Amino acid sequence: MLWLAEQGYQVVGVELSEIAAKDFFAENGLTADVTDQSINGSQFLLYQCHQCAISIWVGDFFKFETDVFDALYDRAALIALPESMRPAYLAHCQALLKNGSNGLIITVVYDQTLASGPPFSVQPEELTSLWSGPLVKAGEIELIEQEPRWKSKGLTSFKEQFWRW
User: Fold this and answer.
1) How confident is the model at residue 67 (pLDDT cuts 50, 70, 90)?
2) Would you call 144 helix, strand, or coil by DSSP?
């Protein structure tokens, strides 16, 4: 998020955990104003950065409704959700996007019979069937050697995949 703001973009994040929002600002040496906000009767905390164009809404993502956005970057939300929640999550993401938007979703793929998440494995077929537009696999990195926790569970592969539209 910080890199995107440094490129001149206005960045909006939605986070369930207030601890995660506080940690983001602290880890990056940033300060923020925090206000209570209501969106269609749902309560949120809004963290607005003093130093850059980053705001983080803390609350229920599925109740988050504002103007539509030009782009989406999902680094760890989809893979934190169990399979049963992914269709609703991806549908809500798409409802928040303008037509012709751009985006990047990062997933992980591994054998969930040997280990379970989070992060959860999201198979390419699942992602492409749930996303209503065309997705392109932009890249893949094998991380098993950098992930001793997963290797110790018997996994021989732990891939990070990058999907764009």
Assistant:
1) confident
2) helix
Helix and strand numbers, DSSP H then E, in the chain: 5, 8
Write the CATH number for 97. 3.40.50.150
The pLDDT score that the predictor gives to residue 47 is 98
Q: d(Cα 77, Cα 84) in Å, to the nearest integer?
A: 14
- Which pTM value belongs to this model? 0.92
Domain match, 110 and 154 both: yes
76 and 43 fall within a common domain: no
**Same-domain status, 88 and 62:** no
